């Protein structure tokens, strides 16, 4: 069963909660999928059952079309945020890691075409594999973080949080106006361009700020 871990593999003292995600926070990703640029953050939620550690092979749904990777910086929330102002959100971030927002792309496109919600394509069990968390102070300026994803040794995605359309502080404040963020909740902050299909037995390597490396394997 998933639990939040620090970089030493030790459990963190926070209950596992929901995952609040933002879509299209990097303009280049919106452009590659021919999506319009939103005027405000596009928010959706994954349940706690979507979370999975990287120490076990990633289980992909079968028979539902292509499954795309979307690497994202993940924030672990350590105190309650409700109708917060941007200037009062920074100290609520108690951990920073990397996550994969796994997406059933064919199904998502089908649902979008019908005007239906995305949950079946985004919130399925195991759809949010996530790394252990670093202490924010170990990373310096959180709004200047490099992160990347390699698949089978080839770089697929590379981004920097400086390129986000909304800062972490703005995202947390906006989210807290609709969904109270509680200790143990996770916020996914969006993905840069380069999303592509995952295949059985793919080997994944994620890097955060040139300091931390996380590996994962897709089940065969």
Count the strands? 14
Unreliable runs, pLDDT <50, ≥5 residues?
A: none
Overall average pLDDT? 93
Q: Please bin the fraction of helical residues.
A: 10-25%
Radius of gyration: 16 Å
SS strand fraction: 25-35%
Shape: globular
Give the biggest beta sheet.
5 strands, mixed
- SS content category: alpha+beta
Helix-strand pattern: EHEEEEEEHHEEEHEEEE
Q: Between the first and last Cα atoms, what is the distance in angstroms?
A: 21 Å
Biggest sheet, spatial arrangement of strands:
2-1-11-5-6
Question: Helical element count?
Answer: 4
Structure description:
- The chain has 220 residues and is α+β, with helices and mostly antiparallel strands.
- The protein has four helices and 14 strands.
- The protein has helices at residues 27-32, 105-113, 119-122, 168-176; strands at 19-23, 42-46, 51-52, 67-69, 71-77, 93-100, 103-104, 128-129, 146-151, 154-160, 186-188, 196-197, 203-208, 212-217.
- The strands form four sheets. A five-stranded mixed sheet has the order 2-1-11-5-6, with helices on one face. Strands 10-9-13-14 form a four-stranded antiparallel sheet, with no helix packed on it. Strands 7-4-12 form a three-stranded antiparallel sheet.
- Strand 13 (203-208) and strand 14 (212-217) form a beta hairpin.
- The longest helix has 9 residues, at 105-113.
- The radius of gyration is 16 Å and the shape is globular.
